[in-house]
């Protein structure tokens, strides 16, 4: 039996994770749950999965939750410290890191320091503090298993192969809802159009990132830290059907790929049950129904965010943390209709230009840079 703490349990990844857990009561149990403000949803999860510790956004939400529950109460905490305590829970064998944004960094770092294996959905953790997190994973001898669909595909395509035989890794991108939208129309698109992802049903922030191609940029940086590949050996190809989840090309020209229906329960089930596999509930792939798989070059003129992420990775140091924080602020402002779609990469680029880079592996330093970039980007949204 593997006991899980799920950080971000009421979100898209959290719900898919709990669906996998529900299918395997003999295999997985829930030690802890952490989320933000959806106390109602959390109370239902507590009744079904009986965790011993939970966390919500603030003290008021904790009081609200306590009033909703009767019988055996779990320990109730709040804030980032509360989420981190859920990750550190003694009975947890593995932590599913699925809080959205850089808010997931501290709980993930503390879970690693507590010796927990990590199933990582929260890509921002590696974008902000990739060197620190990689060092801690080695130091505490824990497993960092990818949940992100592309990285799970690469992880699976690497199995049984030697690192020195890899030529490059190739991330697939759906291209998002604006793949064929002309540049001048991108000036006018709003959140309701950007939130219509062609293939995946996900939280709002990552869905906007998919529309700008920043999601792919963040994933390039995530791949760099997970698989030790330099920027020049990470490729991106647009594949609108999202059936091939990513690929590894070897030095002999052979390419290994992982295919499947676009449903996050597959990579989640793989991370939870690794090195075994378990039934995930996804639809079986019928290639005769898919019929056509197509591929295109990404357009970094219309979608500069992908280029900015490669720039940040090549520049290194604290640049990726700045890229991420400015993007989080710009995406939130776009969702609030304060700025337009094309302002998102413009704000990220200007914030990066204003940054004086530093090399650091210190958590507080990363957090200070994150705060600076948020303030700088926020001033541009007014
Ligand atoms: N969705 C997907 O298919 C994929 C997602 N990912 C990554 O996984 C992560 C989660 O994405 P997704 O599930 O879509 O996001 P959602 O917005 O759907 O869910 C986010 C979860 O995090 C919680 N949360 C947000 N802020 C805080 C906070 N400060 N403290 C505690 N909990 C918080 C939310 O709680 P509440 O809503 O109650 O506030 C919610 O449970 C992201 O990093 C994303 O990039 C990666 C690959 C695919
Ligand atoms: C499901 C998943 O892993 C997402 O990151 C997905 O890849 C987003 O699709 P895009 O390829 O459009 O960014
Ligand atoms: Mn992905």
TrEMBL record:
Catalytic activities: 2-C-methyl-D-erythritol 4-phosphate + NADP(+) = 1-deoxy-D-xylulose 5-phosphate + NADPH + H(+)
Superkingdom of the source species: Bacteria
Every 1-deoxy-D-xylulose 5-phosphate reductoisomerase N-terminal domain range: 4-130
Co-factor requirement: Mg(2+); Mn(2+)
Residue positions binding NADPH: 10-13, 36, 122, 124, 203
Enzyme class: oxidoreductase
Pathway stated in the Swiss-Prot or TrEMBL entry: Isoprenoid biosynthesis; isopentenyl diphosphate biosynthesis via DXP pathway; isopentenyl diphosphate from 1-deoxy-D-xylulose 5-phosphate: step 1/6
GO molecular function terms attached to this record: 1-deoxy-D-xylulose-5-phosphate reductoisomerase activity
Binding-site residues, 1-deoxy-D-xylulose 5-phosphate: 123, 149-150, 174, 197, 210, 215-216, 219
Enzyme Commission number(s) from the entry: 1.1.1.267
Cited InterPro entries: DXP_reductoisomerase, DXP_reductoisomerase_C, DXP_reductoisomerase_N, DXPR_C, DXPR_C_sf, NAD(P)-bd_dom_sf
1-deoxy-D-xylulose 5-phosphate reductoisomerase C-terminal domain boundaries: 144-227
Domain DXP reductoisomerase C-terminal, first and last residues per copy: 259-375
Keyword Oxidoreductase: yes
Residues binding Mn(2+): 148, 150, 219
Signal sequence extent: none
Keywords associated with the record: Isoprene biosynthesis, Magnesium, Manganese, Metal-binding, NADP, Oxidoreductase
Similarity comment: family membership: Belongs to the DXR family.
Function: Catalyzes the NADPH-dependent rearrangement and reduction of 1-deoxy-D-xylulose-5-phosphate (DXP) to 2-C-methyl-D-erythritol 4-phosphate (MEP).
Designated name of the protein: 1-deoxy-D-xylulose 5-phosphate reductoisomerase
Taxonomic lineage of the native organism: Bacteria, Pseudomonadati, Chlorobiota, Chlorobiia, Chlorobiales
